[in-house]
Design goal:
This protein has about 160 residues and is mainly beta. The chain is built from two helices and ten strands. The chain has one domain. The chain is globular, with a radius of gyration of 18 Å.
Length: about 160
């Protein structure tokens, strides 16, 4: 990549999202497009080995469990559990409103399948490890290809049952 192309890409990586906030836009490739654009259909998509069934993240071309190259994008439920989190109060980059929560969530379909993300739509005092969460997507328009950032919010608790049977 030339210095000019690198400079142009860098300037497009740090842009405004459709809500006027700041966003860091990932560079799309054939290897990761399924992940960053799955949200267009409301899907959280990982590569999955078609031979042993293991999900792979970050995306790699060969399954580390059975060395199969038979890997294809496949949607998961979007359900996860908060493994750990931190509440950030420092504005590391201009445009990021504080506080914000960075979490590592474990995807329901596979033990050890984890994703670093942000937690949203939850009072800070209610966040805890083991909390059930679900994927939601934040759309960012980009001239190099729109992306849908997977974020997570608490799974709504079921409404209490009222009355007698």
């Amino acid at each position: 990549m030339s210095e000019r192309q690198s400079s142009e890409r860098q300037s497009s990586e740090q842009g405004s999202d459709e809500q006027g906030g700041f966003a860091v836009v990932p560079e799309l490739s054939d290897r990761n497009r399924h992940f960053w654009q799955g949200g267009a259909k409301g899907e959280l998509v990982f590569l999955r080995c078609q031979d042993c069934g293991s999900y792979l993240h970050p995306p790699i071309p060969i399954c580390p469990h059975d060395q199969s190259k038979n890997v294809q994008p496949e949607a998961v439920s979007g359900r996860a559990t908060v493994a750990t989190y931190t509440i950030n109060h420092h504005p590391w980059l201009p445009g990021f409103e504080t506080p914000y929560v960075v979490a590592i969530v474990e995807i329901a379909e596979q033990t050890g399948l984890r994703l670093t993300t942000n937690l949203i739509n939850c009072p800070l005092e209610d966040i805890h490890s083991g909390m059930a969460v679900q994927a939601v997507f934040h759309h960012i328009e980009d001239p190099n290809g729109d992306v849908w950032l997977p974020l997570f919010e608490p799974v709504p608790e079921p409404a209490p049952v009222t009355g007698t049977p």
